[in-house]
Amino acid sequence: MAFATVWNYCVPLAIITVACLVRTARCQAVQAENVTVLEGGTAEISCRLQNYDGSIVVIQNPRRQTLFFNGTRALKDDRFQMVLFSTRLVRITLTNVSVLDEGGYFCQLYTDATHHQVATLSVSVPPETPTVEVKQEAVEGGEVELTCMSPRSKPAATLRWIRNGREIPGVESQQVNAKTFSVSNTIRFPVERKDNGAALSCEAFHPALGVQKRIRHYRLDVNFAPTVRIVPPSGILREGDSLSLTCSVSGNPLPRNIQWSKINESLPERAEISGPTFQISRLSQSHNGTYLCQAQNNYGRAADHYTLLVYDNVSVTTTVPPTSTVPPTPTTQPITSHPATPTLLTPIFAPKPSDPGAVVETHSAVPYAVIGGVLALLVFTVICVLIVTIWCSVRQKGSYLTHEASGLDEHGEVQEAFLNGNDASQGKKEYLL
């Protein structure tokens, strides 16, 4: 079967070739080459002639309009130019190529038998940098929908969404516009406040670009309600000091107006407000109270407050007792107060109870020498009393023993008289022991 096929095709071809060598005038041929060019570029259309003997050569466009008759222009289109006409090659150029120029260009050689070949012109349209469309504003807690679009390419471009080096899957779609394609890729995902300013990119790939790509960078714009925080001063405040508060505000969009107020009272006369800064010079206790900072935008409002406590500048004077002949010197000890530092509160509108640190504790300095002297005097007095008491007790006991011995002597004399037979009057004599 294979041998029969070769015999059927090769034998006639060989016969024709031999005949052409014998009669060259009847075997002239023409060849054309296909061309691919980028839109806007220049295309070269070539027709190769074999055994040309000066016959008529005609080049026609895809609509079969004659562009050149031999070397003469036939169609008034300055984009076409005859750059070469020889016995072996005919070449024309087409500048500023568009997709409408696509199609087959005919190279025809008119001899005894007409010969023609078609050179196919293909136009490639690389995509421009894609665009990003947002369907609606992104709000904290909601979803954002982003669409990357490449309105014109041929063949159709490929679009990808990238965030933090990773591709975000999306929904792709294509539409045909004449001979080009419109491509889109849509993504949708939830957003939070932290996503504001996040960087994304849409990348377009196309065969005409090779390894290159067209990139559109985009930053998320997430709207959210404001937050307010009052930055308090460090340390405690006393009469005569200055107060400076800063209201730190964030939000998208950023609130333009910041309002300062004092709860249940009007602001002091010496209060100065400059945007987010609130100041009071030469503080006094009449300035005590709760101060409020408020801000709002289209998505909400917030506030924070600060409780001001101003303390007295009071001192206590104490006298140190003399320890020698040097006269006493009065010394002044300032009051040491321990106020509670005003606490930065959360954004609410109702103030907290007053700071318990408003009570001022006063400590007076008592000399330790006075206390030691008093204690030494008390100890000495107690020792003296004990000594006197013991001495008196010992003396009284000795006197008692002396009288007791005397009584025993008298009692012996009475016994002796009774034994010697003294008269009865004398025997009845009573003795008090």
Report on the structure:
The protein has helices spanning 2-22, 368-419, 424-427; strands at residues 29-32, 35-38, 43-50, 56-60, 66-69, 72-73, 80-85, 89-94, 103-110, 115-124, 131-134, 138-139, 143-153, 158-163, 166-168, 171-177, 180-190, 199-205, 214-219, 222-231, 237-238, 243-252, 258-262, 271-274, 277-280, 289-297, 300-308, 310-311, 315-319, 330-334. The termini are far apart. It is rod-shaped, with a radius of gyration of 60 Å. The chain folds into 3 domains: 26-124, Sandwich (Immunoglobulin-like), CATH 2.60.40.10; 131-220, Sandwich (Immunoglobulin-like), CATH 2.60.40.10; 226-358, Immunoglobulins (Immunoglobulin-like, Sandwich). The strands form 8 sheets. The chain has a 6-stranded mixed beta sheet with strand order 2-10-9-4-5-6, with no helix packed on it. A 5-stranded mixed beta sheet has the order 12-20-22-25-24, with no helix packed on it. A 4-stranded antiparallel beta sheet has the order 1-3-8-7, with no helix packed on it. It is built from 3 helices and 30 strands. The protein is an alpha+beta fold and 433 residues long. 18% of the residues lie in helices and 41% in strands. This is Ig-like domain-containing protein. Residues 1-27 form the signal peptide. It is found in: Membrane. The chain crosses the membrane at residues 368-392. Residues 321-340 are annotated as: Disordered.
